[in-house]
Amino acid sequence: MKSKNQKSFPVALTIAGSDSSGGAGIQADLKTFSALRVIGKSVVASVTSQNSMGVVDSFDLPPEVIESQIKAVFADVKPGAVKTGMLGNEAVVQSAARILKKARVKNLVVDPVIFSSSRKRLLSRGGVERLKGDLLPLALLVTPNLYEAEMLSGVRIQGQGDCLKAAKIILKTGVKNVLIKGGHAKGNADDLFYDGKKAEVLKSARLTGGDRHGTGCVLSAAIAGGLARGDKLSDAVRQAKDFIHDAIAHSLADGKGTPSVHPLAGLYREADRWDLFHRVSLAMERLKAGRVGGLIPEVQSNLAVGLDNAQNRDDVLGIPGRIIKSGEDIATLDAPRFGASRHVADIVLTTMNFDPEKRAVMNIKCDKKVLKICRKLKLSVGSFDRAAEPRQIKEKEGSTLEWGTANAIRKAGYVPDIIYDLGGMGKEEMVRVIAPDIETLTDRVLEINRLYKKG
Ligand code: PXL
Predict the structure, then answer these.
(1) Structural contact between residues 192 and 171, judged by C-beta atoms closer than 8 angstroms
(2) What pLDDT, in 10s, does the model give residues 421-455?
(3) Can you tell me the distance from the alpha carbon of 171 to that of 136, in angstroms, rounded to the nearest whole number?
């Protein structure tokens, strides 16, 4: 029963195969629904034994077992959308189609899984015929890849024109829309969307040369998730394409073979952003309480920390403006922000490029005493000389610190804990404290400050 303050929530159902590797099938579908804030229901149609190197075996469940599961779900809630994935054989396709027809499911997305990427047959020949004859007439959308589109249409696809020809033939089964995925084509991974009236090429840049396990499952689940949330089909498809793009970009090589797409990557990243924001805010409080004003250089200071796998300044959290000093006290003008602190963020991106675990940097005053304390604390020390910077690099505004950081790292052979330079024409000498995380960075700066004050 719904309690008084409980909002209604979107529900989607997947009828598909279980993938013991966790990267595709039911497992990928449920992760995708969850990431989209859609409640996932699942009916297992087949059990596959597989790992990242391929499908070893598959065991289709008896049609009555599939029927029984679907009935149990529908007796309780009517999902706003249903997707089908691997169904295994003709009897399963037939019984799934019969019940979905009876339940008058409107938003049915069919991913016509026929082969695994390792070329294991996941739907019998008879199953393909029943898919065309029984299931597609009920479907709002079918999402074949090029190979599946060839199997469903009988058209040999060699170019965009053949895709449209295939889509038109597939539409004759009664399915209302066709999305032919270009992921296996050469060049860009463009898809063709056809609704019976107009064809649209949905562009996407190719991300990797290699195969990714679970792409088809996640895409169709994301479309079903969007439909369950009430999106129009065209919006659901567009958002699902963005979603799979992100899931592919963050694929996980979690075994010896093909990496799997990562449908939860976006959620984790959002959580990581808030976690880092909170930790940097706490670190700023500690630095303020530690009264590190004596370590702040004339040009003031900043600190920045990169997210796991940071790619650009937007993945690096810094302090807007500067950390400024007033005697021993320090102050900031604003809360930490991603994309702030350009210069220190670029140093972070440089250190992470050499060692992904060196993500936190703060610049502090450089004098003999600071350097002596750093050595006493057994911090590894590297340096660069601004005068040694090649002219071409110097002419590119803002690149000196990246060059200097990389230069010091190359000389040391690793990312040192401290990189200093003695300045140059109009440039103040500077120490950068480098650490694996914001807490270690804060500890180091506070310790340097304590010894600096002691004299
Ligand atoms: O990616 C197609 C697919 C769908 N469902 C299951 C699978 C695979 C591919 O291996 O195992 C269960």
Answers:
(1) no
(2) 999 989 999 999 999 999 999 999 999 999 999 98
(3) 9
pTM: 0.88
Residue 165, both tokens: 């020809």
Question: Which ligand 1 atom sits closest to the C-alpha of 19?
Answer: 12
Cα–Cα distance, 415 to 350 (Å, whole number):
10
> In the structure encoding, which two tokens stand for residue 138, read together?
């009920």
| CA–CA dist 286, 298 (Å, integer) | 21
Domain boundaries, the chain: 11-263, 268-454
Question: Where residue 184 falls among pLDDT bands split at 50, 70, 90?
Answer: low
The residue contributing the CA closest to ligand 1 atom 6 is 25
CATH superfamily of 11-263: Ribokinase (3.40.1190.20)
Token pair for 118: 């390792």
Alpha-carbon distance of 245 to 190, in angstroms, equals 12
Which of 121, 217, 251 is the pocket-test mutation for ligand 1 (most atoms within 8 Å of CB)?
217
Least confident of 57-71, 188-202, 351-365, 433-447: 188-202
CATH number of 268-454: 3.40.225.10
Contact (CB, 8 A) for 356 and 309: yes
Q: Please, which residues bridge with residue 218 across strands?
A: none
- Residue of 120, 128, 134 lying closest to 154 (CA atoms): 128
Give residue 19 CA to ligand 1 midpoint distance, Å.
7
